[in-house]
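Archive entry. Fields below.
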Amino acid sequence: MIVELGHYALILALMVALVQSILPLYGAQARNPALMGLAVPAAVTQLALVAFSFGVLTWAFVKSDFSLAVVTANSHTLKPMLYKVTGVWGNHEGSLHLWVLILALFGAAVAVFGANLPAALRARVIGVQGAIGVAFLAFLIFTSNPFWRLAEPPLNGADLNPLLQDPGLAFHPPFLYLGYVGLSMAFSFAVAALIEGRVDAAWARWVRPWTLTAWVFLTIGIVLGSWWAYYELGWGGFWFWDPVENASFMPWLLAAALLHCAIVVEKREALKSWTILLAILAFGFSLIGTFIVRSGVITSVHSFASDPARGVFILAILGFFTGGALLLFALRASAMESKGLFGMVSREGALVANNILLAVSAFVVFIGTIWPLIAEIVMGRTVSVGEPFFNAAFTPFAVALAVILPPGAMLAWKRGSLSRSLRSLVPAAVLALALAALAWAMQTGRSALGPVGLGLGGWLVFGALTDLWARTGRGANRPGRLIRLPRADWGKATAHAGLGIVIFAVAALHAWKVEDIRIAKLGETFPLGSYEVTLKDVRQVEGPNYTSTTAEMLVTKDGAPVATLFPEKRVYPVQAMPTTEAAIDQGLFRDLYLVIGDPQQGGGWAVRGYIEPFASWLWTGAALMALGGFLSLTDRRYRVAAGARKASVQGVPAE
Amino acid sequence: MSVVRKRWWGGTPACILAIGLALATPALAVQPDEILADPALEARARDISRQIRCPVCQGESIDDSNATISRDLRIILRERLVAGDSDDQVIDFLVARYGEFILYNPRATGSNLILWLAGPAMLALGGGIALAAFRRKTAPETGLSADEEARLKEILKR
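PREDICTED_STRUCTURE:
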């Protein structure tokens, strides 16, 4: 019965979303305050209904209600409780339900926190958000309904794919979706602005925090996924240029471009139409990502069940929203007159270069991802595009971006002096070059990748510090002023330094990784880089819903113990599926990464060992980027805007 | 069919079934018994195997894949290397048997040129548009008109 209530609430949410998408938009056009005012309760009601429905679905998973088709296909009574709950979004239907929930959450957030928006703009934004809600609620209900009952419920379910039975499932998808779906806010603001034909600094001040929020979540989501892959895969890779990874990376790149050019609109009222276009494209790429993941047109290790009907439905949603918004853009873009003029060598000019590089690199990822599809349909040529292509085609743009970032970030607005910002960066450049030379001298191989990565990373980190120091001006008490700098400045420096650390870690992991694959007998000691590893024991262990072959391996360095690690190989009997659980000793400068394989015929076990240099720097750097975004989000100018909202709310009765 | 990579998306039920059947005894990608004694040759073999796609998997290189055919391919390419083939010859040998589908690094020939040149072309286009816009915008730097001059004086008097 409660399942039917959840199903009913979901259908009701679709109806509410229909109201939310039509009446406020009409009301804003007809200047009818009552209809415009409907947007707020509609958005909040939609959230309440979708949240209730999602709660019911979770309840069905927790209670193992096998009368639901989706629970039967993806759950099992023996599954630990954590995976019963996270298993809700470990499948197509449930994860789409989460998608819709987060969409409704953002719609309601504008309704609740948007009191200082002009009434018409707010009505339009919530209306557009409602329209996206209609499309995805319809998609959920008509093609992927999680509340389908089975006529004859089985005694037990088919269990969740063992690969997904990991704490990573708890956090990675929700954060990723908060990012993906968060970009719908920028889209809704862009479409609303196009309908009004007005983009100004106030609009940018409203869009930027939403974009920044989405970007921060997307960063966290991507990094969690990367980290999950790293510790779960069994060979220590962290990024594979898989179509589904690319699907999350493209919106991330475009969102990064968008939050930079929104600064230009906010401060200088220039680049308006480009900002609008980027907002449309960023969400458009989120939709393309959804299409890639759920349609199955592009083969990927982690695509969902491929169903042509679903693919066509998403393609229709994609065509309607992106196509419609682009058409609106073509009609209205000329109305977006830019006010601020600026020279080529200026902060604005540098941000234009940043945007070109980010957008082109997103385009390279895009064409690489869909090229197999195009080549097959148009040329009848079956080709694959993988890591070697992306490494070769993407890296130059990333490097170019890193090279121009520090001087660009220090240029003055409107008209800057390149030689002046370069002169102040001389110490940073010298330090970065010294680091690169040191790495070159210390490494044994001939690859330039490591030193170049360290040099570039150093350039970004020292550049960010130089920028921060330069912001304190001249004279006495510079440290005091440093602390009191706006949070946006701190956020900028933190995020840029984080990017530098990420670039360094990626280069280091590619250049200096040590791998060892061998057969080890019990009690045998073998070298791994500068460490020695001893296979002490291999034993069988029973888990709640799996059996595990657990190895005990002692790592020593020059005889002194470093760590005892327990890599596992698990078999989940319900799905008759093996998984590897690598054991990792995390360190400041390296991760020790051990994997146990199969017993060998002549005795002994297949064993893999890796030394992953600076692996934790990758996650730290990415976390700094997210932290930088968050710091920028708490900048005074946004808090002041929030204060203004309170004032206007108090002012209403007096009018 | 195999799954080495794990993400929450998982595979289709049919795919999972196939994995279960194919991998009664799971193995991890490159096996110790495949490795060549000569480290330089082995490094070349690994380099090549990372660029070759497993023909039956959902999107993995033969270096990562557990499928039987990937193991066969890894062994074949090592045999070719031991026989004295160059890297290109080994890759040609594999492409002649399995088609260019197995190349993760698509060759920059024929229609694939579009793929390789798309990025630089887009950069040129974007850069060109930006440059043209700068030139157009920054050209006239006129001062205040007579009207504006008068209005400015008026404002300053207040």
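CURATOR_NOTE: Chain A has 21 helices and ten strands.
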